[in-house]
UniProtKB/TrEMBL annotation:
One of its GO terms (molecular function) is 3-dehydroquinate dehydratase activity. The record marks R18 as: Transition state stabilizer. Its EC number is 4.2.1.10. This is 3-dehydroquinate dehydratase. Gene3D superfamilies: Dehydroquinase, class II. It comes from Wenzhouxiangella limi. One of its GO terms (biological process) is amino acid biosynthetic process. It comes from the Bacteria. Pathway: Metabolic intermediate biosynthesis; chorismate biosynthesis; chorismate from D-erythrose 4-phosphate and phosphoenolpyruvate: step 3/7. CDD domains: DHQase_II.
């Protein structure tokens, strides 16, 4: 069974309450539940991880590499624009990944326009709220050639 690790970065534990006009009203628990149902229907093993600590996110990326996960779906949140070490961890893990954002960084403040991860990512999906995660999972499933 193909395996996918979904990693949520800083402040995403506040989804549904934090700036809902930007990030929507869907909670992280609701997003994870939607993804879990979809993955189960498609025969994909999914695990979830969220942390507000950069070193914990890096450790989870390392772990995904050690456990030979097939894919990572990651929303690095604000670390997108600041974390060279998260980039290095993703490069070292050797697991293909999709970068996900709820909002569209290019439509926001100029400091959000640069991603340290974009050139390593297989793809980026942003601006579709909670659906950004589902679109990323669909893209991964398409790579496994599984029926949806």
């Amino acid at each position: 069974m193909p395996s996918v690790v979904v990693i949520h970065g800083p402040n995403l534990d506040l989804l549904g309450r934090r700036e809902p006009e930007i990030y929507g009203r869907t909670s992280l628990q609701e997003i994870n539940a939607q993804l879990a149902r979809f993955a189960e229907d498609c025969g994909v093993a999914l695990s979830f991880f969220q942390s507000n600590a950069e070193h914990e996110l890096i450790a989870r990326v390392h772990e995904a590499g050690h456990e030979a996960a097939d894919w990572i779906i990651i929303n690095p949140a604000g670390l997108t624009h600041t974390s060279v070490v998260l980039r290095d961890a993703l490069a070292a893990a050797g697991v293909p990944f999709i970068e996900v954002h709820l909002s569209n960084p290019e439509r926001r403040e100029s400091f959000r326009h640069h991603s340290y991860l974009a050139d390593l990512a297989e793809g980026r999906i942003s601006g579709f709220g909670a659906d950004s995660y589902l679109l990323a999972l669909q893209a991964v499933i398409n790579r496994f050639d599984l029926k949806t």
